[in-house]
Amino acid sequence: MTRTARPRRFLMCRPTHFEVSYAINPWMDPAKPVDTDLAVVQWERLHDLYVELGHRVDLIDPLPGLPDMVYAANGATVVDGKVLGARFRNAERAAEGPAYLEWFRARGFTAHDPLHVNEGEGDLLLTGRHLLAGRGFRSESAGHAEAQEFLGRPVIGLDLVDPRFYHLDTALGVLDADQIVYYPGAFSAGSRAVLRRLFPDAVRVEEEDAEAFGLNLMSDGLNVVLPEAATGVAARLRERGFRPVGMDLSELLKGGGSVKCCTLEIREAV
Predict the structure, then answer these.
(1) Angstrom distances, CA of residue 259 to CA of 2, 122, 182, 262
(2) Domains of the chain by range and CATH?
(3) What parts of the sequence cross the membrane (predicted)?
(4) Of 70, 91, 118, 264, which is most buried with the most CB atoms under 10 A?
């Protein structure tokens, strides 16, 4: 199978102020030491890889007191040049939404400040036909409806049931317009049935690869950047004609995020 890489535009945030000083997901442990300098080095390798692969990477300045701002994917959802801002469930991250909205507005994007909780591309993932929307731990159904109205894309709500996979992008990755990879155990029975109907040829992976954050990936249609520990996911992707590229983001995983969490895609108007 022949696959083609398509250049993308990303927004990223250097983890200058990264630390784990609170716990708002099962992966965070404030008692566990964090090496901020190593987190920066690992992040820079991801940034440089994107550039080497031919993608454009813009940067937003990190703000003191917002250690999770490095997880840029949560900052907004951008479709056809329209920016749906994020509204966070947890107070510790609340200031990130306005910071990302300000960045986009300063660059002329049409932006919407949401009324309801949605945590950006953490829970809103665009495929060729739908906007897949996670709920159950962070984003809420009212936020899904708001996304559909503003972005003009049909939204498919998916119920997450395992707290380890609290955002959709920890349980499911979009590989191409009509191809996804996911861990079935992260979803309710009804949501698994929906995914089977929408994506009968989807790649399904095992729990150990999901625990390695192997679904928190970024694909350009050919190259799939993912945590290097997720060897099972990488093997399955090779079988489908993709080119997996493993990265070590072990320090950033201590905050509950990996490749996709660090990467917000800017989909400009066409």
Answers:
(1) 24, 12, 15, 5
(2) 9-265 (3.75.10.10)
(3) none
(4) 118
